[in-house]
Amino acid sequence: MANQRLNELIERFSGVRILVIGDLMLDEFVWGRVSRISPEAPVPVVEVTSESCYPGGAANVARNVRELGAAVQVAGIAGDDAAGARLLVLLAAAGIDAAAVLRDTSFSTTVKTRIIARHQQVTRVDRERRATLNAAQTELILARMEQAIEQVDAVIVADYGKGFLTQPIADHIGRMVRAAGKILALDPHPHTSLHWPGTTIVKPNRREAFLEAGVAPSAPADPPLEDQPLLEAARRLLERWRPKSLLITLGAQGMLLLEKDAPPRHLPAHAKDVFDVSGAGDTAIAVLALALAAGATPGEAAELANRASAIVVGKLGTATATAAELAASVARS
Question: The whole model's pTM is what?
Answer without folding.
Answer: 0.93
